[in-house]
Amino acid sequence: MKKNMQIWTVIVFALFLFPVIIQFIPEESKISNTKIIKENALIVYASNVVEEEVEPVVPTEVSAGKVLLYYTHSHEAYEPMTKAADGKVAVSHHTENIMKMGEKLKNQLTINGLEAEAIEVDIMKEMLKNRIPYARAYKEIRPHVKKRLAEKEYDLIIDIHRDAVGPELTTLVHEGQRYAKVAFVVGTDHAGYKQNEQLTKQLKLQMEKRIPGITRNVISKGGAGVDGKYNQDLHPKIILIELGGIGNNEEELNRTIGVIAEAVKELVEQGEGTEK
Fold first, then answer.
1. Which range has the worst mean pLDDT, 2-16, 62-76, 84-98?
2. Quick check: 40 pLDDT over 50?
3. What CATH number did the domain enclosing 115 receive?
C-alpha cells in the first residue's frame, strides 16, 4: 500500500511540473518537425523529374542567350491529354495543345538561365479560332515572326509542332523512364537552309548526349508538294521541332521538355547559335 502511494505521489508531482517544464523547451525543438516537412516539400526539377504546375524559378543571373518560341500549328494536340481533359480523344484541341507544352518549355528555359519569350498567345489563339488551313498556317504566322525578329535579336528561334505519327515511333524508354521523341524538319527551298540545318543538327547532338535515342531524324523537305521553307528563310537560327506524336502523354512530354531546355542552354553557351 505504501509503495502504491509513493507511485501516485510521483505521478501527481510530474503532472504538476509538466506545464512549467515545457515553457523552457527551445522554440527550435517545437518547430523541428514542421521544418522538416517543409524542407522535404522542396521540388528538384531536372530532365528526369516530372512535376505538374511547377512555378518557374527565375534565376538571379540571366545569360545573354535569348530564345523565341512560336507555334505555326497551335491547335496540334495529344490524344492522351485530350482524353484526360474532357474524355474525348482528339488531335486538335483548344487547350490541350502544343501551346501548353510550349509554355512549359519556356519556363524550363528560364530556369536554365535563358531569356525565353513566345509570340503572343492571343495571336496563336486567334489563328486557332479562325481554323486556318494546315497548309496556309505558315503564311499566316510569317508576318508575326518577321515583326518579332525585326524588334530583337535571338540566339535561337523554335517553331514547335506535334508529329502525326503514333507512339510506337515517338516514344523512348530509357533507364525505366518514358520520353517523347523529337524529330526535326528543315526546309531546303531557300538559299540559306544549310545554316538552319547545321544548327538543327547541333541541337539534336546535345539532346542525344543527355538521353541517347531521344531524337529521331532531321527531315529535309523541298520541291513540289511541300512548303519547302517553313519560314526558316527569315532567319538562319530558326529550327522546327516535332515534339512527340499524337499518342504521347503529358508525363513523357514533360521529361523531354526538360532535356530540350538543357540542350538549348548548352548550345547557346557554346556559341553554336550565336554567330551572326
1. 2-16
2. no
3. 3.40.630.40
Which distant-in-sequence residues (6+ apart) come within 8 Å of 71 by Cβ? 98, 99, 102, 119, 124, 159, 160, 161
Hey, which residues does 245 pair with through a beta bridge?
A: 163
Q: Rounded distance, CA 247 to CA 258, Å?
A: 19
> 24 and 87 share a domain?
no
- Whether residue 192 lies inside any domain: the answer is yes
Same domain flag for 139 and 102: yes
Across 67-81, average pLDDT = 95
User: Considering just the CA atoms, what is the radius of gyration of the chain in Å?
Assistant: 27
Q: In the prediction, which pLDDT does 133 show?
A: 76
Domain that holds residue 218: 66-269
Residue 275, in any domain of the structure: no
Residues 151 and 260 placed together within one structural domain of the fold: yes
- Asked if 137 and 206 sit in the same domain, the reply is yes
Reported pTM = 0.76
Question: Contact, 162 vs 76, CB < 8 A?
Answer: yes
Number of CB atoms found within 10 A of residue 56's CB = 15
Write out the DSSP string of the chain.
Answer: -HHHHHHHHHHHHHHHHHHHHHTTS-HHHHHHHHHHHHHHT-----TT---TTPPP---SS--S-EEEEE-TTTTBB-HHHHHHHHS---SB-SSSBHHHHHHHHHHHHHHTT-EEEES-HHHHHHHHHTT--GGGHHHHHHHHHHHHHHH---SEEEEEEEESS-HHHHEEEETTEEEE-EEEEEE-SSTTHHHHHHHHHHHHHHHHHHSTT-EEEEEEE-STTS-S-TTGGG-TTEEEEEEEETT--HHHHHHHHHHHHHHHHHHHHTTTT---
What is the average per-residue pLDDT within 133-146? 89
Q: For residue 52, what pLDDT is reported?
A: 44
